[in-house]
## 1
Amino acid sequence: MSTDLTVLLVVAAVLAAATLAVAVALLVRLVRTRRALRRAGLPVERQWVFWAAIAYLVLPADLVPDPVYLDDIGVLLLALRSMRSASDGPSAPRG
């Protein structure tokens, strides 16, 4: 195998591992946010967002192939943002 191909494969593996680590970190943060909202007594109005994000992460059908977790990261970030905005409630100031 050529040196260039070896370097390319190593870089691709490192990038795939880094994006997977970010996706897992966001998943953990999403689960912790959901638990914190439940413990605080706030109704989680958008529970379907949480479960849809989890399902999208673990199901094999993705918009982008799984070695690149950018779509999974995007879905997890949107779910986290949606759950945070639901906890703010309608009376919270926007900005």
## 2
Amino acid sequence: MISFTAIAGLLLLVLFALPLLLGFLAGRAFREGRGRVGLGLLLFGAFLGLLARPRPLGLLLLLMGLLLGYGRLRL
């Protein structure tokens, strides 16, 4: 049986990971020319970034994901 703190920890991890992921996907959508999709992902990521308790951290993760998704992949 999973304890309450383990479930709360997993929810907190998801709450921090989603703005980063949504920012990355929004950056990819903007780069591919799908502006409406990118804007929707960006707005939802900003909403989730505001829900993260240290607010600058959630928005910083969103911005970092956006920059990672929009930038070119160099191998």
